Amino acid sequence: MAPAKKLAVPANLTLLLLPARWPELNPVEAVWQFLRQNWLINRIYASYADIADHCCHAWQRLIESPSTPCPSDDAPGPMGSNQ
Q1: Is residue 12 part of a domain?
Q2: Domain residues for 48?
Q3: Tens digits of per-residue pLDDT, 29-38?
Q4: Distance between CA atoms of 63 and 48, rounded to whole angstroms?
Q5: Per the structure, how many domains does the chain have?
Q6: Which distant-in-sequence residues (6+ apart) come within 8 Å of 34 by Cβ?
């Protein structure tokens, strides 16, 4: 393998190194987990288009019911799950 080249960081940016596998720092991970657990779990998809259709349908269901509870910070486990 060739050695990695040094990243040129512009002076107006500061890089923050985040811990690996820390989904609490990325709120969209909680949304994605909620979609998987509620509408995308235990399915066999026929094609990529089928996966995309199911994901779009799950997203629409989430948008149509904003009062649907999402994982909370005070629930046990990562992102509010009991895993």
Answers
A1: no
A2: 23-68
A3: 888 888 888 8
A4: 23
A5: 1
A6: 62, 68, 70, 71
